[in-house]
Structure formats: structure tokens, C-alpha cells
Amino acid sequence: MAITVPKIKDMKDKEKISMITAYDYTSARIADEAGIDIILVGDSLAMVMQGKSSTIPVTVDEVIYHAKMVRQGAKNALIVVDMPFMSYQADYVEAIRNAGRILKETGCDAVKLEGGREFVPTISSIVAAGIPVMGHLGLTPQSINIFGSYKARGKDEAEATKIKEDAKFLQEAGVFSIVLESVPKQLAKEITESVNVPTIGIGAGVHTDGQVLVFHDMLGLFDDFKPKFVKRYAHLKKDALDGVKQYIKEVKAGEFPTDEHSYL
Ligand SMILES: Nc1nc(=O)c2c([nH]1)NC[C@@H]1CN(c3ccc(C(=O)N[C@@H](CCC(=O)O)C(=O)O)cc3)CN21
Ligand SMILES: CC(C)C(=O)C(=O)O
Ligand SMILES: [Mg+2]
């Protein structure tokens, strides 16, 4: 049965939520067939699909292109799409229109946007339009030019308090779930216990209500950088390199194709 927003909310304190990114049909198929709860069409596609050094350049048209392909590959998972940098920050009417385009043109289920109390009016307006919103606190990569690095957030008392308060603000604004990225595990635990919507951690320890990782990171396919929170469950880049090298060798040696791969 297809997973819905109410089902995700209901999983808090009952069953851990599994979430993974996907940017195309083939990866979405794999995640969905494996039984993932949520697929995120992350703006991390800037790094993984486009080779950029931040998520800043991604456009609404580009996430829509990827989200359409993901939709084709997923039958059961809930599909959440990241709202790109500057598609929701300037004014809330533009934010509603962009969130609406994303849902309407892709058939996906919800949007995610980064930020705390400053975005309460934006989030509540998008939700009022009938579009479910997932929040994102802690390390918010679209603010890389303010932060200056991708280091963990909320390590001092003042920032920890701000993030914890922001989680409450997001809950009041009507988010159905909150991603907590790169924060101390104790802070993530306190937030998880203080809000009534599920938290989904990435680099936030074991006490969140769910976990999310980038598909290409956890399968060892992407290695431009490797945050501490990434666990490699496969080594696909090594497999792919070995495969392509073997193919080249056999082509050069006239060993491929044999009659098995020829029309006789
Ligand atoms: N492939 C990929 N995976 C991601 O998890 C990811 C993206 N891209 N793009 C968007 C953001 C950027 N992210 C990042 C990028 C780098 C670090 C990183 O280098 N972290 C250091 C922090 C060290 C510290 O806090 O002291 C690390 O070593 O973990 C973390 C998250 C997470 N997101
Ligand atoms: C890392 C996750 C949470 C994300 O926002 C992304 O992939 O863009
Ligand atoms: Mg993102």
C-alpha cells in the first residue's frame, strides 16, 4: 500500500522511518523495491548529478525534471521534493506557486524546505494550500555562504537552543516531519522528544524517529567527499570501475563479443 503523510506521522514512537534520496527512475526503482518509506528528490542532486560544489545553483525546473523520473520508479514510497534555494525565500506567494508547480507537474507527494522560525508564514501558507511540508534544521546546506563550511551545527548552547526552539516553531507551522542534519545526538534526542511530528536524522545520531542518507553515498558510488555520517553499504564505484576496465581490456584484445553476444 502506498505510504501517505498521515502514515508517516503515525510511525513516530512505533516504527523507525527509512528515507533515501533518488534522482532518477532506476535509483527510485531500487529504493522502492527494497521497501523504503520515503524517497527524497534532494537538491543534493547539484553535487551528485551535476558535479557542483554546493546546492545553491539548482533550479525549480531541474528538480521537477528529476522528480518526474523518480515518480515513474516509485510505487509505494512517499516522494518528497526539495525546494531549491531562492524558490521560497523571497516571498511566500512565490513559495506557494513553486511548491504547487512541483506537486502538480511531478505527481510527487510533499516538499521540503530549509529553515526555522523565519519560515513559519511560508510553511503555513504552503500547508494551507494543501501541500504537505517537511522541515529541515541544523546544517542547512543552502546557507553555506552564511555558515562558511559544512561543519556540524548546534554544538554550543546558544545555537542548540535556537534549533530546539525552531523545531517547535516548525511543528506549529504545520510540518509533517523534520530533517535534523549534522547536530549532536543529544540535541537530536531532546528535539525528538519535544515535538509530536517525526524527526529524520542525517548525522544526528540514533535517537531520531528515522534516518536519511544520499543513495550514491551509502552505496559507495559518490566519493567527492564523505561526511562522517555516511556508512557505505556497497561499493558500487569500485564495481563499476572494475567492470568498465574489464570491458576495455576485452575490446582491445578482441575477446568481446563472443558468439554468445552476436547474431549468428
Ligand atoms: N553526496 C552528498 N551527500 C550529502 O549528504 C549532502 C550532499 N551531497 N549535498 C548537500 C549536503 C551537503 N552535505 C554535507 C557535506 C559535507 C559535510 C562534511 O564534510 N562534514 C564534515 C563535518 C566535520 C565537522 O563538523 O567537524 C565531516 O567530516 O563529517 C557534511 C554534510 C550533506 N548533503
Ligand atoms: C541530505 C538530505 C536531507 C537533503 O536535503 C538532500 O539530499 O538534498
Ligand atoms: Mg537538500
UniProtKB/TrEMBL annotation:
Names of required cofactors: Mg(2+)
Sorted UniProt keywords: Cytoplasm, Magnesium, Metal-binding, Methyltransferase, Pantothenate biosynthesis, Transferase
Cofactor annotation remark: Binds 1 Mg(2+) ion per subunit.
Entry superkingdom: Bacteria
Annotated HAMAP family: PanB (MF_00156)
GO terms, biological process: methylation; pantothenate biosynthetic process
Signal peptide start and end residues: none
Function: Catalyzes the reversible reaction in which hydroxymethyl group from 5,10-methylenetetrahydrofolate is transferred onto alpha-ketoisovalerate to form ketopantoate.
Protein name: 3-methyl-2-oxobutanoate hydroxymethyltransferase
Record-annotated membrane-spanning stretches: none
Species for this entry: Hippea maritima (strain ATCC 700847 / DSM 10411 / MH2)
Stretches assigned to coiled coil: none
Sites where the protein binds 3-methyl-2-oxobutanoate: 43-44, 82, 112
Family: Belongs to the PanB family.
Protein location: Cytoplasm
Entry annotation: catalytic residues: 181 (proton acceptor)
Pathway of action: Cofactor biosynthesis; (R)-pantothenate biosynthesis; (R)-pantoate from 3-methyl-2-oxobutanoate: step 1/2
One GO CC term, this protein: cytoplasm
Binding-site list for Mg(2+): 43, 82, 114
Family matches, as Gene3D superfamilies: Phosphoenolpyruvate-binding domains (3.20.20.60)
Single GO molecular function: 3-methyl-2-oxobutanoate hydroxymethyltransferase activity
